[in-house]
Amino acid sequence: MPQLPDIVAFIHALEPGIIAQPIQQTQLTNPFLLRTAEPSITEVEGHTVRELRRIGKGIAIGVEGDLWPGLHLMITGRVHWRQRGARYS
After folding, report:
1. Domains contained in the chain, CATH given
2. Residues near 51 by Cβ (< 8 Å), separated by ≥ 6?
3. Alpha carbon separation from 84 to 8, 21, 25, 68, 79 (Å, rounded)
4. What would the pLDDT profile of 18-54 be if each residue is shown by its tens digit?
5. How far apart are CA 22 and CA 2, in angstroms?
6. pLDDT at residue number 73
7. What confidence category does residue 89 fall into, taking pLDDT thresholds of 50, 70 and 90?
8. In which element (H, E) is residue 45 found?
9. Number of other residues whose CB lies within 10 A of the CB of residue 6
10. Which residues on neighbouring strands pair with residue 52, listed in sequence order?
11. Is 14 helix (H, G, I), strand (E, B) or coil?
12. pTM here?
């Protein structure tokens, strides 16, 4: 499981590519990974990312409209980030 310094490093690496960018699409590949369904995860689509925050060992993504989807890196600490149109492998 990633430790706190890993989370901070991950946020710093992610910020330049995500801040001020719109979220074009969300995809939840496993419904058991979602803790809450209100509002729907798709509510962030089309909204611009404003900031990233560390909350414990999680990452909160501040999106315009006061939406805050959370991300936990779990055991492996991996996030699959793709450019638009890229195929998932």
Report:
1. 4-72 (3.20.190.10)
2. 19, 62
3. 26, 12, 9, 22, 16
4. 999 999 888 877 777 777 778 888 999 999 999 999 9
5. 27
6. 81
7. low
8. none
9. 13
10. 61
11. helix
12. 0.79
Determine phi and psi for 34, rounding to 5 degrees: -90, 125
Given this model, what pLDDT does residue 45 score? 95
- Beta-carbon neighbour count of residue 59 at 10 Å? 20
Q: Letter for the amino acid at 49?
A: V
Give pLDDT, residue 77: 64
Cβ atoms of 52 and 69 within 8 Å: the answer is no
Scan for tokens 């999106």, then name that residue. 63
Q: Quote the percentage of the chain above a pLDDT of 70.
A: 85
Task: Select from 1, 3, 9 the least CA-distant residue to 52.
Answer: 9
Phi, psi angles (nearest 5°) of residue 63: -120, 145
